[in-house]
């Protein structure tokens, strides 16, 4: 029976503690997929190095925090394989071999690569300006372009293809931004099969409609903007963050009609309202009251605190329970690596044979 189940593969770069955008955008979906699919979820620590190679000081701590968040959120190692990419060196071997048949132009034209390069250059510029003031010289975009013009970064999608193809993943839950990478994985698999025979499966994306989660300031929620609500927040910090959320600058008083949805008058839309949609049953009523000038922002924020308090407390409790088992992460990752390696080794032996490497 298990042979007919879809094989789901997905990874996350270890960024440390997860925020609620990561939860609603990916993790929640991962957890539900474990009910019906054979799932492999891994910490993409090598992918982290493609951009973060110069500073690996926090890498181990970030891996640990992220896996603790996975477990506390309910990702169950009894229902899926949870492991770390670098614990299964077959990922590197397959990436190397796939690199032989991957055309450079596929990589150079990958829109995700171009965009990421651009984004990272912007972030670095912002950091340089913050450090040195607005007169920061020289042109930082050019400098960081060089930092990121590495073999590893350009080859990011080849490694990602190896991650998926190694487990013959049929479905890959990813965000919209990852679609070009996945198309490349399919292309890489097709070329391999064309040259060496049908060994690798072409993975399909699994796009789940996930709400856009704005950060505290109305921009996209992102660690680099410092505008996140983490899954693990203390009650006080959750409260403080909600009270500081962007709402509708034109709503000066309770009886001013507000614009909760993104619109011309309030382009980012009210962040509090966006979160009510996720955490408060009957949230439509809140929008009506706001538009009618019958609900003020402070009361609105207090009611969001009420809605988010429960889930947040539950999560804190789960993290505390994990703290009582200090070896838990290591044990889960070791067992996951054992299971993943068995599958990875089997695929690699097919791959080597197809390529006549033995
Ligand atoms: N590139 C993905 C991201 O940034 C992480 C990732 C690495 C991944 N390997 C993968 C996702 C394989 C899906 C499948 O989010």
Which oligomeric form is depicted?
single chain
Bound molecules: tryptophan
Structural class: mainly alpha
Number of helices: 15
Order of helices and strands: EHEHHEHHHHHHEHEHHHHH
Q: Please state the overall shape, judged from the principal axes of the Cα atoms.
A: globular
**What is the gyration radius calculated from CA atoms?**
22 Å
Q: Sheet with the most strands?
A: 3 strands, parallel
- What is the CATH superfamily classification of the largest domain? HUPs
Explain what this protein looks like in three dimensions.
This protein is mainly α and 358 residues long. The chain contains 15 helices and five strands. The protein folds into two domains: 7-214 and 327-354, 3-Layer(aba) Sandwich (Rossmann fold), CATH 3.40.50; 233-322, Tyrosyl-Transfer RNA Synthetase (Orthogonal Bundle), CATH 1.10.240.10. Helix 1 (20-33) links the parallel strand 1 and strand 2 (38-43). Helix 4 crosses helix 9, helix 11 (235-243) runs antiparallel to helix 14 (297-323) and helix 12 (271-279) packs antiparallel against helix 13 (283-291). The model is unreliable at 137-143 (pLDDT under 50). The site of tryptophan has 13 residues, from strand 1 and helix 9. Tryptophan binds at residues 9-13, 44, 47, 160, 163-164, 172, 174, 178.
């Amino acid at each position: 029976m298990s042979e007919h189940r879809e094989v789901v593969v997905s990874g996350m770069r270890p960024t440390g503690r997860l925020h609620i955008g990561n939860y609603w955008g990916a993790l929640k979906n991962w957890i539900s997929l474990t009910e019906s699919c054979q799932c492999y979820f891994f910490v993409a620590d090598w992918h982290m190095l493609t951009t973060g190679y110069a500073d690996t000081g926090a890498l181990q701590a970030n891996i640990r925090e992220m896996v603790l968040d996975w477990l506390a959120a309910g990702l169950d190692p009894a229902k899926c394989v949870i492991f770390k990419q670098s614990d299964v060196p077959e990922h590197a071997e397959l990436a190397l071999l796939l690199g032989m048949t991957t055309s450079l132009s596929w990589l150079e034209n990958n829109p995700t690569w171009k965009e990421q390069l651009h984004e990272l250059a912007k972030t670095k510029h912002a950091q340089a300006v913050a450090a040195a003031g607005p007169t920061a010289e020289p042109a930082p975009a050019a400098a960081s372009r060089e930092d990121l013009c590495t073999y590893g970064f350009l080859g990011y999608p080849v490694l990602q293809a190896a991650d998926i193809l190694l487990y013959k993943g049929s479905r890959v839950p990813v965000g919209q931004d990852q679609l070009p990478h996945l198309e490349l994985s399919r292309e890489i698999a097709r070329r391999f099969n064309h040259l060496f025979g049908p060994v690798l499966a072409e993975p399909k994306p699994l796009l789940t409609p996930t709400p856009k989660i704005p950060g505290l300031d109305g921009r996209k929620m992102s660690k680099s903007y410092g505008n996140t609500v983490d899954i693990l927040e203390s009650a006080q910090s959750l409260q403080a963050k909600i009270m500081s959320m962007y709402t509708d600058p034109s709503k000066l008083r309770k009886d001013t009609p507000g614009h909760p949805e993104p619109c011309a008058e309030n382009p980012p839309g009210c962040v509090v309202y966006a979160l009510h949609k996720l955490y408060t049953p009957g949230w439509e009523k809140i929008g009506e009251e706001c538009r009618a000038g019958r609900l003020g922002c402070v009361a609105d924020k207090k009611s969001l605190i009420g809605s988010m308090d429960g889930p947040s407390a539950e999560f804190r409790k789960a993290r505390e329970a994990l703290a009582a088992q200090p070896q838990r992460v290591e044990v889960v990752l070791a067992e996951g690596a054992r299971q993943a390696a068995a599958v990875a080794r089997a695929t690699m032996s097919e791959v080597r044979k197809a390529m006549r490497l033995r």
